[in-house]
Design goal:
The protein contains five helices and four strands; from the N terminus they run βαβααααββ. The protein is α+β, with helices and mostly antiparallel strands. It has a four-stranded mixed beta sheet with strand order 2-1-3-4, sandwiched between helices. It starts with a strand and ends in a 15-residue tail after the last strand. The model has no long low-confidence stretch (mean pLDDT 91).
């Protein structure tokens, strides 16, 4: 099942992903900030090429949270579990949308890259 993580209901990129999947009758599940699970984040990270850098917003978009993160912990010394827990507590640090299933990941919306979610027929 394809899952789409979204920060808010009014995100243009998220709407484009949903519209694209709906137009092709591809089922999906929406995950909100409050329903994001550790298992979902672990799946996203396992599919990512760049790890946390790929799924987190830049520091310029969330300077207060990055400052809080630096003040509470040494970023370089944080374990993956600690970072995942911090993201679950502060999901606004995640980019949106994050579209994924068991094998594929798309962060944001790109008209070419989203085609990877087209089902393959044998």
């Amino acid at each position: 099942m394809i899952k789409i993580y979204q920060k808010s209901q009014t995100n243009q990129s998220t709407e484009r992903v949903r519209d694209w999947l709906t137009a092709r009758a591809i089922p999906y599940q929406t995950i909100s900030k409050s329903s994001l699970s550790k298992a979902d984040l672990m799946r996203v990270l396992s599919l990512s090429n760049k790890g946390f850098d790929e799924i987190m917003v830049s520091e310029s978009k969330a300077p207060k949270l990055y400052s809080q993160l630096r003040n509470s912990r040494d970023l370089e010394q944080m374990t993956t579990d600690e970072m995942i827990q911090f993201l679950l507590e502060h999901p606004q640090l995640l980019r949106s949308p994050i579209t994924f299933d068991e094998q594929r990941l798309l962060v944001g919306y790109n008209t070419d890259d989203i085609r990877t979610f087209l089902p393959r027929f044998h």
